[in-house]
Structures are given as structure tokens and as C-alpha cells.
Specification:
heterodimer; A: 292 residues; alpha/beta; six-stranded mixed sheet; four-stranded antiparallel sheet; 13 strands; elongated; B: 133 residues; mainly alpha; Arc Repressor Mutant, subunit A; two-stranded antiparallel ribbon; 5 helices
């Protein structure tokens, strides 16, 4: 299998005069779980729709499993699962009938997996869709996306409306899927603790561009908050690699992307001051990057 | 294997796992020659990404703490091959710096800290604690 599951090159897309994606570049390795982060309106949903073939970029190239999603054949679509942000399930249909209907659209539909998901998520299949809670409707959408066993799964805010127990079951399911082998999961979310639990790669979208796209481990190891104190004179200007920089009472607090672990010590030596390194959670990192 | 991980901590998940496995190996809770759970098993058990576990096993292997036998699995190394002294010192340096900073805040003297460290050596690694280089 190809090493790259998803590739976005130089993609621009706007709605009317509002630019949403501005020459976006993004690569997702096959077999990874990619957590796609960004504030509301940052273009996450637009990106996922383009990946699902539900829209076309104004310029640039997109490939999912080596194919342009806009030109997907019915066969190509079998390989890509998609859960939309605002899913639209037929309200009057019973869940059991809906699943039976969809199963016939997919030759590779895995009946056993489908039943397993129903019992794992405890979805009441004999009710009409409209009678389900928002969370259970979401779980039905997730089952529909996963049961055909697609090689690439695109999930737009899958965890929205799920209670903590359902969310944990969903995350465990995603991990089980990955453990079985060559599958790629690309999901957007605002629940950063979910990303920290399962994702190996994270991307942060802001102002139509990807500000960060790397492994979660290296992000946590290289983005640090550093407190510099004891300057002989005034606090210095922020170094270029700072995402944030605040000065108060002669101390400076900066969020820095470190090229190497010795960087804070080198800066402190140059400024003739002391320093302290503070580890950041993904949420801290996200807020500092997305706010900028 | 019971291991407590905190995904939302500022410490990367793989480092949390690595440190805990190292402590279990150092203290003999997992003995030389003993088999570690497979990447699949441990990731399913801890409910984390299998790549995270694979990365930790790779690091442990590189540092000579475990060995992978083809088709059999990962085992705690019989003879712990050690990195050069300089590399080992460097690896420990950040933790020591933090420890010393904490000790200063708590107004503990150097001698008191050394005594505490000796006690932990005694607990974790009683055989070799006195005359290690």
C-alpha cells in the first residue's frame, strides 16, 4: 500500500469573497490516527468535505488513496468512510432498517463488525432515528462510516454530543480498527483530551493554513513555555520562534517552538538571565497557537 | 501490566510509558529474560495508539534494556548493555535539575537530598546500591 493516505497540495478554497483555505498543504501517513484541530470557522469542515469529494478546490491538488476525491468512482468510495458534521439521517426510518439499507450499498459491509458496534455502543436499533438522542444518532452515523471497513475514515466532529462513556467506547473502537492494520483515521474535534489519548499525528489549522502538523510526541517535546527572569535590564523582545510572549514585573513568559532542547539555556545565557521550562498540555499548545 | 498514564499531562505519552517500564525493569519487578506483552496486547490493554507502544519498545531496545527475538516477542535483556557514561549522565540531567530546584524550594540541604536518593537506591536496587560507579 502507498505510504501516503491523504495528500493536500497548495489548496485554496473560498466561499464567495471569504477565503477559507489559503494554499493549504497537508499529508497524512497511511496507518495513522490524525487529529485535526482548529477553532470554529477555521476551515476544518471545508477540508474534510474536499477530502470526501463533496466539493472542489479552486486551485491545488487533493489525493485520497492516490485518487482525486472529486473524480471518485463508486468503487473508490467503498474505500473511504465519511461522517459529516451535520449528519442528515432519515428521521422516520428505524435504525435497523437504515443499517440494512446501507449494508446493500457496500459489497464489503461487515455484518459482524456492525453487530459488534451496535452492542458496544448500545444503540437502540428498534427505534426510529428521530426518537434517538443526539448522541445515539451520532453513534449510528459512526457505525455507518465504519461498517464497510474503509481504508480511510474521515470523521468530522465524531465525538460531538457523545457522553464520556460513549466517547471512550468510540475511541477504543478507533484504536481497535488501527490495530487491525492498514487503516487511516482522520478526525476533527474540539475535545483535545481525545486527541491526546489516541492520535499519533496532530494538525492545527488557523487562518486557512496548517500552523502545525507533526507527531503529538514531538509537539509536546518541542513546544514549551519558558519563563525567563532576573534580567539585568529590561526584558528583551520575543525571539522569532515564540508563539506567545508576555512581559510582567521584569519577567518574560514565552511559548517557544524549540529547535533543540538546549535553546532556552542558550537564550538565557545570551540575555544573562535565569529560566524555567514548563511542560504544556495539547490544550495549552493549541490555545497559544490558534490565538496568535 | 498495570500502568497509569495521563494523556493530558504535558509529558508525552510515550515518555510516561517509557519511564514506568524503565522503573519496573530497574527495580526487578520485571526480571531479566521475562517477556513483555506484545505491542498489540499492551496497546489494547492501555487503550493507547499501538505506535506509541512500538516507539517505547524501540527506545528500550536501542538502550539495551530489552531485546526482540524474531517471531517470539520482546524480552527484558539478560545483560544490560549500557550507553557511554556521558550519554547516561545527560539523560538523567533534566530530572536531577528539577529535583534540585524542588529541594531548594523545600529548603533541603544537599546532604539531605543525597540521603534521600540513597534510600531510593536501596529500595529499588538493593544489590548494587553501595558500590556503583
Amino acid at each position: 500500500m502507498n505510504d501516503t493516505a491523504i495528500s493536500i497540495r497548495d489548496v485554496t478554497r473560498s466561499y464567495g469573497k471569504t477565503p477559507v483555505l489559503d494554499r493549504l498543504d497537508l499529508t497524512v501517513k497511511a496507518g495513522s490516527i490524525y487529529g485535526f484541530l482548529g477553532r470554529n470557522g477555521s476551515g476544518k469542515t471545508t477540508t474534510i468535505k474536499l477530502l470526501a469529494g463533496l466539493g472542489r478546490p479552486e486551485s491545488g491538488e487533493i489525493a485520497v488513496l492516490g485518487r482525486d476525491p472529486w473524480a471518485f468512482t463508486a468503487e473508490d468510495r467503498q474505500g473511504v468512510g465519511y461522517l459529516s458534521e451535520k449528519q442528515n439521517l432519515p428521521p422516520l426510518m428505524k435504525v435497523r432498517s437504515l443499517l440494512a439499507f446501507c449494508s446493500r450499498l457496500y459489497p464489503q459491509w461487515d455484518r459482524e463488525l456492525c453487530e459488534g458496534l451496535i452492542s458496544r455502543f448500545q444503540v437502540p436499533v428498534n427505534k426510529r432515528v428521530s426518537a434517538l438522542s443526539m448522541g445515539n444518532q451520532r453513534l449510528v452515523g459512526i457505525i455507518l462510516a465504519l461498517a464497510p471497513r474503509p481504508a480511510v475514515v474521515l470523521l468530522d466532529e465524531p465525538a460531538a454530543n457523545l457522553d464520556p462513556v460513549a466517547r471512550r467506547e468510540f475511541l477504543d473502537e478507533v484504536l481497535d480498527l488501527i490495530r487491525e492494520g492498514e487503516r487511516t483515521v482522520f478526525f476533527s474535534t474540539h475535545i483535545l483530551s481525545d486527541v491526546e489519548r489516541v492520535a499519533d499525528e496532530v494538525g492545527i489549522l488557523a487562518q486557512g493554513k496548517l500552523r502545525v502538523s507533526e507527531s503529538l510526541d514531538s509537539l509536546k517535546e518541542t513546544v514549551k513555555r519558558v519563563r525567563f527572569y532576573g534580567f539585568p535590564g529590561n526584558a528583551p523582545e520575543p525571539p522569532p520562534q515564540a508563539f506567545g510572549w508576555r512581559v510582567r514585573n521584569g519577567e518574560a513568559l514565552g511559548t517557544l517552538k524549540l529547535a533543540h532542547p538546549g535553546e532556552p539555556a542558550a537564550l538565557a545565557a545570551a540575555w544573562k538571565c535565569q529560566y524555567e521550562i514548563i511542560d504544556l498540555s495539547l490544550e495549552d499548545i493549541f490555545v497559544d497557537i490558534a490565538r496568535n | 501490566m498495570f500502568i497509569a498514564l495521563h494523556p493530558s499531562s504535558g509529558v508525552p505519552l510515550y515518555l510516561q510509558l517509557l519511564n514506568q517500564l524503565k522503573e519496573r525493569i530497574a527495580s526487578g519487578q520485571v526480571k531479566p529474560g521475562e517477556q513483555l506483552p506484545s505491542v498489540r496486547e499492551l496497546s489494547a490493554d492501555l487503550k493507547i495508539n499501538p505506535l506509541t507502544v512500538a516507539k517505547v519498545y524501540q527506545i528500550l531496545e536501542r538502550e539495551g534494556l530489552v531485546e526482540t527475538r524474531r517471531g517470539m516477542g520482546t524480552f527484558v535483556a539478560q545483560k544490560v548493555e549500557t550507553l557511554p557514561v556521558a550519554a547516561r549522565r545527560q539523560a538523567l540531567d533534566p530530572a536531577v535539575r528539577q529535583l534540585v530546584a524542588e529541594a531548594i524550594h523545600l529548603r533541603l540541604s544537599e546532604a539531605e537530598v543525597v540521603e534521600l536518593i540513597a534510600r531510593h537506591f536501596q529500595q529499588l536496587h538493593p544489590r548494587n546500591s553501595s558500590n556503583q560507579p
